[in-house]
Design a protein that fits this description.
This protein is of the alpha+beta class. The chain is 33% helix and 28% strand. It contains three helices and four strands; from the N terminus they run βαββααβ. The chain has helices spanning 16-31, 57-64, 67-76; strands spanning 3-9, 36-44, 47-54, 85-89. Strands 2-3-1-4 form a four-stranded antiparallel β-sheet.
C-alpha cells in the first residue's frame, strides 16, 4: 500500500522565494526516484507544503536518505526556521472509493 507524507517547510522572513526555488529545483530528481508516485509542492504566505505519495515505506526510506534531499539540505541552510515538519499518514478510506482516499 502507498504511503502519504505531508512535509511543511517554514522559510525565514524574506526567504520564501529562495526556499521555493530550491524546492522547485529538487523536484525533478525526486520525481525520478523509484517509488515516487506524487511529489507536489503547495504554498501559502508563510509556508511551503510538499504532498508526497510513495509506493512503499521502503521507497520513502530510500528517498529520505537519497541524493536529492542531501543536496537540498545545504541549499535550505539558514533560510528555514527549522527542519521540515514531516508527517507520515495512514489512509482512512470513507465515502466514495474514488474520492475518499489518496492512496490506491
Amino acid at each position: 500500500m502507498s504511503v502519504v507524507v505531508v512535509a511543511t517547510i517554514t522559510p525565514q522572513p524574506g526567504q520564501h522565494e529562495a526556499v521555493r526555488a530550491a524546492l522547485l529545483e529538487a523536484i525533478p530528481a525526486v520525481h525520478a526516484e523509484d517509488g515516487c508516485e506524487l511529489y507536489a509542492l503547495h504554498e501559502k504566505d508563510d509556508r511551503l507544503v510538499m504532498i508526497e505519495q510513495w509506493s512503499s515505506a521502503e521507497a520513502l526510506a530510500v528517498h529520505s536518505k537519497g541524493a536529492a534531499l542531501a543536496e537540498l539540505g545545504p541549499r535550505l541552510a539558514g533560510k528555514v526556521t527549522a527542519a521540515p515538519e514531516v508527517v507520515v499518514l495512514t489512509a482512512v478510506p470513507a465515502g466514495d472509493p474514488a474520492k475518499g482516499v489518496v492512496v490506491s
